[in-house]
Amino acid sequence: MFDLIGNLGLGFTTALSPINLALCFLGCLVGTVKLGVSPSVYMDDIYTYLQISDFMHGFLKTFFFAFMIATVSCYKGLNTKGGAEGVGKSTTEAVVISMVLVMVMDYFISSLLVAVGV
Q: Which residues of the chain have a pLDDT value below 50?
């Protein structure tokens, strides 16, 4: 069971990191289409005002969140009993627990990253 959780956690973590990077570029698209900001101005402001620590702060948290969500979901899914009703309850519990843990982990990981200087 722990091999499965570890493999799924690693896979989920690996999948979310490129998505996080793609969303940064999606911001340029939204800025261009919806707000009328030219892509050159958007990218120039990114290079001028965004520091690598700003990007790394959010990027590093992605790994922790992905692993935690995958672990909670696998644990709840592998311990489900009671047929379709049990699957529904386990899914709801996994989502609620994951949401709460993301908020709690965000606080502690952000505190740690700020203390370290990232």
A: none
Please state whether the predicted TM-score (pTM) of the whole model is above 0.85: no
- Longest distance between any two alpha carbons in the chain, whole Å: 56
CA distance 27 to 34: 10
Amino acid at 18: P
Q: Please spell the DSSP secondary structure of 61-97, one letter per residue.
A: HHHHHHHHHHHHHHHHHHT--SHHHHHHHHHHHHHHH
Asked if 94 and 72 touch (Cβ cutoff 8 Å), the reply is: yes
C-alpha span between 109 and 103 (Å, rounded): 10
CA pair distance 71, 9, nearest whole angstrom: 6
- CA 99 to chain CA centroid, Å, is 11
Question: Are 69 and 98 a contacting pair, CB within 8 Å?
Answer: yes
